[in-house]
Amino acid sequence: MGGIIWVIIVGFVAGIIARFLSPGPNNPSGFILTTVLGIVGAFLATFIGQAIGHYGPEQGAGFITATIGALVVLFIWNRLVAARVIPDIGNK
Prior knowledge:
The protein is mostly helical. The protein has helices spanning 2-21, 31-51, 63-82.
């Protein structure tokens, strides 16, 4: 149970930092979407780190790499909004 709470906390902090570093009108907003952004970024960073051999099978991404992963996810989100694949939630 403590591991899940830790992942949510790391994800939320990474999501906040990523949204701060990449401001824009079409960023996902709100507590839930910010947390999901960070968690997906952490999973992405962990997957890539394990694939290239930087992390072992039982290791996960830390704050810095989770934030970098969240920035990558945020960049992809912004490109999908720009291509009108997903709707711009903030601009109705």
